[in-house]
Amino acid sequence: MSLEPLSLIRVDMSTGEAHRAPLPEAWRMLGGRSLSAKILLEECDPRCDPLGADNVLVFAGGVLTGTAAPTSGRLSVGAKSPLTGGIKEANAGGNPAQHLARLGVRAIVVRGQPTNPDARYGLEVDATGARLVDASKLKGLWTYATCEHLRADYSKDASFICCGPAGEHRLGGASVACTDQDNRYPARHASRGGMGAVMGAKGLKFVAIEPGRSRLRRAARHKSFIERCKRVGQSYREGDQLFSEGTAIGVLLADSIHSLPYKNRVAGSSPDAATLDGHLIKETFEERGGGMHNCLTGCIVQCSNVIHDAEGEYKTSALEFETMALLGSNCAVARWEDVADLDRLCDDVGLDTIETGAAISILMEAGQMEWGDVASMKGLFQEISDGTPRGRAIGGGAVATAEFTGHTRVPVVKGQAIAAWDPRPLKATGVTYATSAMGADHTAGLVLEPGVAVEDCARRSQEEQTVSAICDGSGFCEFLGATPDDIRELYADLLDREVSRDEIADLGWQTLEDEWEFNRRAGFTEADDVLPECMRTDPVGPANDVFDLPREVIAAAKVRMPLSDVFFGKRSAG
After folding, report:
1. What is the rounded average pLDDT for all residues in the chain?
2. Phi, psi (5° rounding) for residue 205?
3. Same domain, 344 and 433
4. Which of 206, 548, 194, 232 lies closest to 400 in space, CA to CA?
5. 545 shares a domain with 517
6. Of residues 163, 532, 554, the one with CA closest to residue 358
7. Are residues 338 and 464 in the same domain?
8. Which residues on neighbouring strands pair with residue 262, listed in sequence order?
9. Shared-domain flag, residues 436 and 526
10. Among 465, 477, 537, 478, residue whose Cα is nearest residue 265
């Protein structure tokens, strides 16, 4: 059986041209983060200005995206990061990746920059091709208002990708928003690393995808593929389903192991953990409405909580653990409902909740805002939209805010704020934060286990980083828990050829090597693979944990180790 034709959409913002081009056969096994890394390494100058014309912006679905594989529609957004100066991939749910894949598009590759910095454009993608259109009427609009306009201009089936004013202002904490399964709310964000700033710098306000009558992609070995999909889904349903009430239920766990950041990480637990507990969200569903839903078509995990206010009106979705930790506990905000308000504001102005929470906590520790002052925190978002000096600092992230305030205690790695899970009690996670090319990212390979022996930290980190890379290339959500064996067997049925364990492991490792090589060419060295001084000197918890692993242990995570049979059945920690 011949394989379906797949394409790239190549867009040049300098000339206004957009066209489809065949996906190179050598890239057929690459999707999502893996494809983004390969394109950036081969087509983007690692020493370019991240906000300049030479940066390359990639929107990529996974190898399995658009098929019947459950929960396989994640979208990877990649570019050189204006926050870290290195390679970055952030991914999001919603329907855009599914719609692109059903149209036969594996990725959109955007280069160039309009000569007029005030110009705004939209990219339309449908069965007839792709074209840039004027989007000047959307300039400066927040993401919810942007998508209201777009819904009026396109069909009810269309999905959208957009950036908010933070992206248009080219701020390092800016995110890329995707609409959810119902194509209504821009609440699914590729948040980390400033991908929204790259989108804004290219004058690209939105991407609208019209799926039309396109159908699911069909595997070459269709019957076997469908049977495997059913087994993967059944395995998930028969498992623990840890996030059936959303990821914010992790607050109490993180607090109990002293890995919940409090007041710019001066402590690893919060006195307000009980009122930030994600289980409280579910208690509002019966009275207010809302509930758990799937953020993208075909998702069986349904970890997304739709939150309504006291009047029963939609407020936000989904309020996740990382947001509860950084905008909540880390800023000494005591109530989850206040964090929900802040989450909506971040989504609307187009900002990463992790980077923004870290930035605001620095503002507070520097004495320029009271701890837990929710009203003042909310007021910052209009400043960010307006582009005031303080607003630009907060929207620019933790390092930019430290420069604005003169504060020196800045918990970042490679310029990016440390994600929620604290590396002092979770030392193997600290190895991931240090060695990942993307900085301290919660999607790079967490090891959520205290007390891992020093001699095992590098191996555990390397395994999780490799599993995460494999998963990100497939299009699967990590919460589904698909193993490398699951993914390679699905690839085999999709492509009608055998995919060995060695090949799937090589795909994951090659992604990491491509990312490390991009950073090496950008000027990064082993000296950048460190955690900040405050993580190495400021203790947390009753054991007075600090991140004290020797440099050689950290470095070992970037030297490939033999894999055991256990690895191929390994489920990502998510």
Report:
1. 96
2. -80, -35
3. no
4. 194
5. yes
6. 532
7. no
8. 267
9. yes
10. 537
Query: 3-class DSSP state for residue 162?
Result: strand
Question: Which residue from 22, 94, 17, 105 is spatially nearest to 58, judged by alpha carbons?
Answer: 105
Distance between CA atoms of 412 and 396, rounded to whole angstroms? Answer: 13
Rg of the chain's alpha carbons, rounded to an integer?
22
Q: pTM, whole model, 2 decimals?
A: 0.97
In this predicted model, what pLDDT tens digit does every residue of 195-249 receive, in sequence order? Answer: 999 999 999 999 999 999 999 999 999 999 999 999 999 999 998 888 888 999 9
Non-local (6+) Cβ contacts of 24 within 8 A are none
The residue length of the chain stands at 574
Look at residue 572 and tell me whether its pLDDT is greater than 70: no
pLDDT digits (tens, 9 = 90+) for 112-169: 999 999 999 999 999 999 999 999 999 999 999 999 999 999 999 999 999 999 999 9
Q: Tell me the C-alpha to C-alpha distance, in Å, between residue 321 and each of 252, 318, 494.
A: 10, 10, 34
SS (H, E, C) 481-540: CCCHHHHHHHHHHHHCCCCCHHHHHHHHHHHHHHHHHHHHHHCCCHHHCCCCHHHHHCCE
In whole angstroms, how far apart are CA 64 and each of 90, 491, 509? 18, 8, 19
Closest CA relative to residue 57, chosen from 48, 67, 66: 48
Both 246 and 395 in one domain: the answer is yes
- How would DSSP label each residue in 382-401? HHHHHT-HHHHHHHH-HHHH
Has residue 233 been placed in a domain? no
Give how many domains the chain has, as a whole number: 3
Shared domain check, 439 and 373? no
Three-state DSSP state, 137: helix
| The 3-state secondary structure of 32-69, one letter per residue | HHHHHHHHHHHHCCCCCCCCCCCCCEEEEECCCCCCCC
Phi, psi of 22 (to 5 degrees): -60, 140
Plot region of 151 (φ>0 → left; ψ -120 to 50 → alpha; else → beta): alpha
- H/E stretch holding 131 reads strand 129-134
Calpha distance 393→402 (Å, rounded): 8
Phi then psi for 300, rounded to 5 degrees? -110, -5
CB count in 10 Å sphere of residue 258: 21
Distance CA 418, CA 531 (A): 9
The angle, 0 to 180 degrees and rounded to 10, between the axes of the packed helices 336-349 and 143-153 is: 60
Same domain, 258 and 133: no
Q: What is the CATH number of the domain that holds 499?
A: 1.10.599.10
User: Which of 166, 186, 209 is the last residue in one of the domains?
Assistant: 209
Residue 227 lies in a domain: no
Beta bridge partners, 440, equal: none
> Distances from the Cα of 561 to the Cαs of 91, 180, 192, 514, 525, in angstroms?
27, 39, 29, 17, 21
In a domain, 21, yes or no: yes
Note whether 406 and 436 are same-domain residues: no
What is the span of the domain harbouring residue 511?
Answer: 427-568
**Is residue 490 one of the residues assigned to a domain?**
yes
